[in-house]
């Protein structure tokens, strides 16, 4: 069963993954945010490159579960570009992207 939410900008298809799959992705985002949390900084817990890479790999895995081989994600989709190391980080306005706060 697919869910649909029309995208008035025509940027995305509007097809929403199942609630279970959305929760898988949101859980990995929540885990990644815990890795880079301010609380860890306040407690002076060091952040390692391995932790960052593992968090990114876990997000990549969640995206691949929902969109195998990125099927269904357009070539310009920011998450796809980021995970394929093609995103241009320089000179981007921070108000362009939606942020989900957990």
Word description of this protein:
The protein has one domain. A two-stranded antiparallel ribbon has the order 1-2. With 102 residues, the chain is mainly α. The two termini are 26 Å apart.
Major sheet description? 2 strands, antiparallel
The residue ranges in which pLDDT falls below 50 over 5 or more consecutive positions are none
Average of pLDDT: 82
SS-based class: mainly alpha
Number of strands: 2
Integer count of domains: 1
Percent strand: under 5%
* Cα distance spanning the termini: 26 Å
Alpha-carbon Rg, integer: 15 Å
State the helix count. 4
Observed structural traits:
2 strands, 4% strand, mainly alpha, 102 residues, single chain, 45% helix, 4 helices, two-stranded antiparallel sheet
What is the strand and helix layout of this fold?
Elements lengths: L2 E2 L10 E2 L2 H17 L2 H5 L6 H18 L11 H6 L19
Antiparallel strand pairs: 1-2
